[in-house]
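User: For my dataset I need records formatted as: sequence, then structure tokens, nothing else. Please produce one.
Assistant:
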Amino acid sequence: MISGLFDLLAQVAIAIACMLAITISACVGRRRLRTTRREWRGRVARAAPIALVLIAVLLVNRTVRDGLQGLSWDIGFQVTKYFREIEGTAILWFQSFASTELTMYFSFVYIYGYAFMLIFPVIAYFALSDTRPLRELLTAYTLNYSLGLVLYVLVVAYGPRNTELLPQIDTFLYTFRPQYQYLTGEVNRSVNVFPSLHTSLSATIAIFAYRTRDEYPKWFALAVPLAVSVAASTMYLGIHWAIDVLAGFALAAVAAFASKRLVGRWSVTKELDRRFDSDVTTRIRTATETLTDGGVDGDGEGKRRADDERRDADERSEPTGDAVLDAESTSNSTEPEGRKREA
């Protein structure tokens, strides 16, 4: 099993790397990449606080998720039968369109397309001089995973493929490629299907693609149909109920809206300063400001830009040679008139 998982991870990594290389070339472009090479330290410094929070949330999610299943059974609401009663055979309707080509497409989208969607916008927004879209995206990721974990604890629901309430369901993902279960088993749990994080994160990325459509029009054109495909794949493959998908869309809307409100109004370093040793956070803030101002840029780009701006201002304030000559000529031409008036 371990060797099969490693082989699959290697295949996924290679495929995603190729997809990223093509999309970065087509959507980001060389000019932004050259600028990023000069300014990357400042951008890292500005995005680092929320990136660290996201990493912490992912680690907590990974660490406590199995341990919280017992708590979930104790305090959570068991809703699988209600989902089945509300939806009826909606999932079977999706599977009624089954074909080899659709199964290949949705399996690819669910595994490869989803991972690609999570990674590319981080790279694309890091390539923008304005780091706000990147910080908002990372904040939205954090909210998706945090709120998702809370809902996983409070709502106990088996997916369509894991319940006897829908025996006619087909597990296309595993019949198409059985080794996929090694990968999904590492990240999914049979009772954690509400909401669909595949849907919520994909929809979140589509919302951000819409917000940045002026900067990345090609990415917007790709992200929206890909997000819809990811959501559809979760139902076609029998992994999620339609209710899970709708909840995923709602979670995406909340995360996208909240991230826009939070970024710029709430500071991680200030919150740390309030709760912990102020000396530590002062050093963090000082280092961040130094990086942001370009003082630690390897090529001193920030300092050079400031010097260039000062020189331009000085040149604009100094009169040119032609202006000096014109002023002297005007003075000489008006002097006789003054003397005539005195006479």
